[in-house]
Amino acid sequence: MLNRRKRRQEEGQGHDSKNPKSLRKEERADEAKGPVLKKEIEPNASQIEKARKCTAHEDLNTEQNTSQCRMTDCPTAIKTRKGLPSSSQGNFPDMFLKKVVTITNICTDRIRSPISGVRVTYDNLVWVIYFRNHVKLFSSSGDVLRSTDLDFWPISYSCMTNGDLLVTHGNDCSPPKPTIELISREGNTRRIADLSAVVQYIWSILYQDERIYVIGENEKQKSKRYIIIQLEMNGEIERIYELKPNCVKIDHLISLHGQIFAMRYEKFGMLPLGTDYVSSVPVNKVHIERACSSGASVDNFGNVIVGSGSLLSNIIVIDPKLERKHKIYFEKPQSGPIRSTAVDQQNQLWIVTDDGNLYITKYLKDSAFDQKNDLSAI
């Protein structure tokens, strides 16, 4: 008897304690009332605002991921390219030598003209620009491939993706000629643009994404003394960027991960080129004494290379996030400050000194290439 009661209690635990007659009555009552509809809960104001912010954040992420713009509206958020060393890694200084190892000293006819600067092509040829009416095209080992005489003094220069060279006229004539010339690899020259209606001088030129950027100066217009002009390849002016405020002097342009920077002249600083103007607030977090900003370049790792020093020149390497620096000693007697730098595709550093000499040097440790591979997951 007790066992039968216990089994009945266990079987009835999953059902209502009411008897079957009462359950059938309640089911007929529910059918008469019709289907039960779920009540929709109205979101309150805080929930609506939270959803709006989340949606806006998702839209922003989508826009950033799909955007292919050349320049960012937020240049201070510099990103390190995948697979390249980052300043957050403790081994950044370990990539570089403490003292430059000279591979080759290219002897030049300094009586004729000292060297002004160097630029590297995509296929590892090197343009060497002389102060007076002359350019040469070198192999990466230092052999002369082509020599071209000019009827003007080139003052600034930039390589195009096809290996041709863009140069600007120097201020060797009166009045000066703020013009842009193209020198092909075959040695032919042609004029791209004449900017005399806009500026008096051109101090720097940069080629990027089928556009030409130059720094122009007007001595007569103090309110707009330095500007950056963006041109199409046919020489048409596309946009003019002003400095805000305009009291800053700039003399060089570089491109770091697609972001264009104007280099401040009197005190080292990298000023980002925004959508409509050039910011006067530098984004670099490191300070360099006696920097030669006009000779700055970017190596294959995304590091910025700048010459520094007075009698004994040094190489300063700044990491891609502009947060850390490393000094490499370059002790060449009576060489003077470093005027120009460039890194070729073999990671050789080309250095032009103030006395007009040209050196091919080694600045990376052999272990740096292993570190690059180890950081491929960054």
Silhouette: globular
Distance between the termini: 75 Å
Average pLDDT, rounded to a whole number, is 76
| Helix-and-strand structural type | mainly beta
SSE arrangement, N to C: HHHEEEEEEEEEEEEEEEEEEEEEEEEH
Task: Write down how many β-strands occur, each being a DSSP E stretch of 2 or more residues.
Answer: 24
- What low-confidence regions span 5 or more consecutive residues with pLDDT below 50? 13-18, 32-88, 371-378
The share of residues in helices is 10-25%
The number of helical segments is 4
What is the percentage of strand-forming residues? 35-45%
Query: Which sheet architecture does the biggest sheet show?
Result: 5 strands, mixed
Radius of gyration using CA atoms only: 33 Å
If strands are numbered along the chain, what order do they take across the biggest sheet? 10-11-12-13-17
Gist?
With 378 residues, this protein is mostly beta strands.
